[in-house]
């Protein structure tokens, strides 16, 4: 028996920023050894549709849903059953079920062995609902399927899932609510040691939730002399002891969601806690004092944003020499509280924008309060484009405490910016799906 894992792209154009789809290493690790597994990552390679396979399994995000449904149709046409899981099928299961043989709602690892057993016995169910993961679950990531594929030289690791916060626009909050799962720290450290890689990225949605556990993780990472980066909430900067530990454990860069410079917007998105103890400038300085590079993201289009907000966020990101930054139009992902609110307020321009053949990446899909949808789209793209000019990349590189603290940070700054610059221009205006 053979299972083909597929990571769909958002359209037919290949990407240069695709990271290893770790979920398939996890599923491969849970697959009985007598079953052959293979991976095709649609973002970086063509899918050989004629290759024999018994079962296809895909992870689907909202931006890749349209193309995932096209891929599924091609396999199902020749009688190959297709399993879909991930954020999108979990948040809009009725829609995904129309395009898949089977959908998985929630994290697949708790039901994957049962799903395979059912398939082998010819009784694959239309829906599998995941159960909460026991923290003692022994997870083994089988990464052999990534060998020979052109991913950046970053090893991906996952400590846990979920986030304790409840930001209105966030799909992670919509999927997990405040549920959090964390693997035993000893398991993570054993895995990291076996990876034998100097450059790590923790893919956790928010690496920092509880001080005690996080301190234990950092203490355990310290002797390994690694260089790692992660997504983390700003609150970690409140604790000076943790900040010292972050540096000592090898933290090189953090991605932080600043989202807005307006308190009223932060309140509306349920993220006022972002500034509950420190203003943004002080928090950033704390990271820089420990040599840690900061990537900051902004979301524009909340009700108190005006056409001036783009320039304010752009200036802030440039002045503080964020090594990367993104200026995203607020996007209502299905299943989020934001989507429901905008729908109730009658402000959605395209209800199922992710399937709409006229939708182009970067467009605003709702009516903002203090600007037009076109102004929101253009303002975000202009800020992204200007932030990623060669002059801006060079200007931001000259930060001796962080971005140019040592050769590693300088290389990271340059490589990440060159890839980001290419992707900003490539993605803007792209249609979703696109035919093969
Ligand atoms: S802090 Fe980040 S991951 Fe957590 S709910 Fe907010 S946006 Fe989502």
TrEMBL record:
SMART domains: Elp3. GO terms for molecular function: 4 iron, 4 sulfur cluster binding; catalytic activity; cobalamin binding; metal ion binding. Residues 1-126 form the B12-binding domain. It comes from the Bacteria. One of its GO terms (cellular component) is cytosol. Its cofactor is [4Fe-4S] cluster. InterPro entries: BchE-like, Cobalamin-bd, DUF4070, Elp3/MiaA/NifB-like_rSAM, Methyltransferase_Class_B, rSAM, rSAM_horseshoe, rSAM_sf. Residues 149-368 form the Radical SAM core domain. PROSITE patterns: B12_BINDING, RADICAL_SAM. Keywords: Iron, Iron-sulfur, Metal-binding, Methyltransferase, S-adenosyl-L-methionine, Transferase. This is B12-binding domain-containing radical SAM protein.
């Amino acid at each position: 028996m053979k299972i083909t894992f597929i990571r769909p792209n958002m359209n037919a154009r290949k990407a240069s920023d695709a990271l290893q789809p770790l979920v398939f290493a996890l599923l491969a690790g849970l697959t009985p050894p007598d079953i052959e597994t293979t991976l095709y990552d649609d973002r970086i390679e063509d899918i050989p549709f004629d290759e024999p396979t018994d079962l296809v399994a895909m992870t689907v995000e909202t931006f890749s849903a349209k193309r995932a449904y096209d891929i599924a149709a091609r396999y199902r046409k020749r009688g190959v059953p297709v399993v879909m899981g991930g954020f999108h099928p979990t948040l809009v299961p009725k829609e995904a079920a129309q395009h898949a043989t089977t959908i998985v709602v929630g994290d697949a690892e708790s039901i994957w062995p049962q799903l395979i057993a059912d398939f082998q016995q010819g009784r694959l169910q239309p829906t599998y609902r995941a159960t909460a993961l026991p923290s003692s679950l022994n997870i083994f990531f089988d990464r052999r399927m990534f060998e020979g594929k052109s991913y950046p030289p970053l090893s991906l690791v996952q400590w846990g899932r979920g986030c304790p916060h409840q930001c209105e626009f966030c799909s992670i909050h919509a999927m997990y609510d405040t549920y959090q799962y964390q693997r035993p720290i000893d398991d993570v450290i054993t895995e990291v040691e076996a990876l034998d890689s100097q450059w790590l990225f923790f893919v956790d949605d928010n690496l920092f939730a509880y001080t005690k556990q996080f301190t234990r993780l950092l203490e355990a990472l310290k002797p390994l002399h690694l260089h790692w980066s992660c997504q983390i909430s700003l609150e970690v900067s409140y604790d000076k002891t943790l900040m010292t530990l972050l540096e000592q454990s090898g933290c090189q860069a953090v991605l932080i969601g600043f989202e807005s410079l307006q308190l009223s917007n932060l309140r509306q998105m349920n993220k006022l806690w972002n500034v509950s103890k420190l203003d943004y400038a002080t928090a950033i300085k704390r990271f820089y004092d420990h040599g840690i590079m900061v990537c900051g993201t902004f979301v524009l289009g909340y009700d108190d944003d005006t056409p001036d907000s783009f320039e304010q966020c752009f200036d802030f990101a440039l002045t503080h020499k964020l090594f990367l930054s993104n200026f995203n139009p607020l996007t209502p992902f299905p299943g989020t509280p934001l989507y429901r609110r905008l729908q109730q307020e009658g402000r959605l321009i395209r209800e199922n924008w992710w399937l709409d053949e006229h939708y182009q990446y970067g467009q605003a899909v709702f009516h903002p309060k203090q600007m037009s949808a076109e102004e929101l789209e253009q303002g975000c793209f202009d800020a992204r484009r200007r932030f990623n000019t060669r002059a801006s990349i060079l200007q931001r590189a000259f930060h001796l405490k962080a971005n140019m603290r040592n050769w590693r940070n300088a290389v990271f700054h340059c490589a990440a910016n060159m890839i980001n610059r290419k992707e900003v221009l490539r993605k803007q205006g792209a249609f979703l799906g696109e035919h093969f």
